[in-house]
Amino acid sequence: RDPALLRIHEEAAMVTPDGMPLVWLGRRAGFRQMTRVYGPDLMSEICRLSPSRGWRHFLYGGAPGVAERLAERLRETYPGIAVVGTCCPPFRPLTEEEKEETARMIDRARPHILWVGLGTPKQETWMAEMAPRLRIPVMVGVGAAFDFLSGRKPQAPRWMQRSGLEWLFRLATEPRRLWRRYLVNNTAFLWALAREAGPALRIGGRVE
């Protein structure tokens, strides 16, 4: 439905499944070892390893004050972690001057990992546009991880995450913001994906 977003995913260094329905479809198509890569868990694990590895982090995104609050929590949880900068962008497209200033600010901080919490598809578009302007090794889009790990919003219970019901929890807690994503966009996407994967699902092949 969005050719530009499709191209961004095709050109990304890595794209991982963040939802259980994608994992289930992948397993049925033969990718038996496929597992969910949950943004908050990925971020937490990398931050846990960072003090001993010397990895430096920059946090970009979130509502006003969220990145700063998350930085404080990460320093409390992982003593010695280097959070070298935070930035909360305005809720509007950046001007060219602002993009250049943002790139200079991030490059001056010299992070190894730039975490981007703008939500999909805004964060993917931002990373694709900013990548040529930045001299950093890794950018990772983690969506709502900033809100969850900072304590601003509650996470779904683990049993709901494992059973693929996290969407229901999030819809119940933020219905006005998320109803279209889960009830319209995601339903249409999963239906199209299931139709495309149909032959593979019927064959039941296996890929290691």
Per-chain topology:
Layout: H1 3-11, H2 20-28, H3 39-53, E1 56-61, H4 66-77, E2 82-87, H5 96-109, E3 113-117, H6 122-130, E4 138-141, H7 145-150, H8 158-162, H9 166-173, H10 175-203
Parallel strand pairs: 1-2, 1-3, 3-4
Q: How would you describe this structure to a colleague?
A:
The structure is a single chain. This protein is of the alpha/beta class and 208 residues long. The chain has a domain at 38-155: 3-Layer(aba) Sandwich (Rossmann fold). The protein has ten helices and four strands, in the order H-H-H-E-H-E-H-E-H-E-H-H-H-H. The protein has helices at 3-11, 20-28, 39-53, 66-77, 96-109, 122-130, 145-150, 158-162, 166-173, 175-203, and strands at 56-61, 82-87, 113-117, 138-141. Strands 2-1-3-4 form a four-stranded parallel beta sheet, with helices on both faces. Strand 1 (56-61), helix 4 (66-77) and strand 2 (82-87) form a beta-alpha-beta unit. The chain starts with a helix and ends in a 5-residue tail after the last helix.
Short description:
Helix content is 56%, strand content 10%.
List keywords for this structure.
single chain; 208 residues; alpha/beta; disordered C terminus
* Corresponding CATH architecture of the domain at 38-155: 3-Layer(aba) Sandwich
* Residue share in β-strands: 5-15%
Strand order of the largest sheet: 2-1-3-4
Q: How helical, in percent, are the residues?
A: 55-70%
* CATH topological fold name of the domain at 38-155: Rossmann fold
Segments where pLDDT lies below 50 for 5+ residues? 203-208
Question: Largest sheet, described in full?
Answer: 4 strands, parallel
Compute the number of strand runs: 4
- Name the CATH superfamily assignment of the domain at 38-155: Response regulator
* SSE pattern: HHHEHEHEHEHHHH
Computed over alpha carbons, the radius of gyration is 18 Å
Name of the level-1 CATH class of the domain at 38-155:
Alpha Beta
Structural class: alpha/beta
Number of helices: 10
What best-fitting shape do the alpha-carbon axes yield? globular
Average pLDDT figure: 87
Distance between the termini: 30 Å
